[in-house]
Amino acid sequence: MDDISNSDILQADHLIKKFDNFTAVNDVSISVKKGEIFGFLGPNGAGKTTTIRMLTTITTPTFGNITIAGYNIQKDRINARKYLGITQQHISLDKDITVRENIKHHALLQKIPRAEIEERIKEVSSLLGLEEYMDRTISSLSGGWKRKTAIVCSIIHRPKILFLDEPTAGLDTRSRHMLWDLIRMLNSNGTTIFLTTHYIEEAESLCDRVGIMNYGRIIALGTPKELCQKIGSMTVELIGDDGKIYNRYFPDRSSAKEFVQATTENYNIIRKTNLEDVFLEITGEDTAADKLVRC
């Protein structure tokens, strides 16, 4: 069941999650290939966290099927969970004990044989550069190093796919880029990454493919380049009479320049289209886009 070399490591079909009369996730289907970084982009409240909770077996779908490494989580949850790791948005570390003790605790929870634990801890702490912090308490660490410790705890059992729910939320720029480097390193070492974020630059910088979610649905899916090409690879920012910026999209720079030369409207700049533009164009909702963050 675990021969996933030529198949999707994750397959979710027609997921629905209802809370009483409220539908948080509405008919979401996702496939993630082994070795890619897949990004979930969307504003707060879009349904990203509920979706990731279903994908990681924390929450049971109201309807739909999920397969991880060939195992259907509804039928074989125990085996499916062996292949996944998760770092949730809210760090769940014991702040009063050391980094080493936290990692050991998670290793025991994952039922790693005691004879292997110390070697595993040495392996992951060296890989992620935690050696000098191992005997410090969690409460003494900065936000970035707390998050890094949480990621170490989630990979101690060597998962095939790592779910990161808003891993850089609340971090300063330096800590955020430190986490980006870590994510790239884990991926280069063979770990598939499923990343939820509302930071646009994060998705553009890290992800092979991106799914944009809004109001419980995936409204766009593809590589960042593909998504931008759907509305136009180049953007002309126009300045309206009210002083606001309005965008026009074009397939290439020459088309954008021709428009600028012919228009009588004031324009601000010609630039490449980004994922924020995509979100605005396909949702038409400025208020929702305000919840997205450009780093």
Automatic annotation (TrEMBL):
Pfam families found in the cross-reference section: ABC_tran (PF00005)
Organism domain of life: Archaea
InterPro entries xref list: AAA+_ATPase, ABC_transporter-like_ATP-bd, ABC_transporter_ATP-binding, P-loop_NTPase
Keywords for the protein's UniProt record, in alphabetical order: ATP-binding, Nucleotide-binding, Transport
GO molecular function, one term: ATP binding
Domain ABC transporter residues, every copy: 10-240
PANTHER family in the cross-refs: ABC TRANSPORTER ATP-BINDING PROTEIN (PTHR42711), ABC TRANSPORTER ATP-BINDING PROTEIN NATA (PTHR42711:SF5)
Family: Belongs to the ABC transporter superfamily.
Protein name (record): ABC transporter, ATP-binding protein
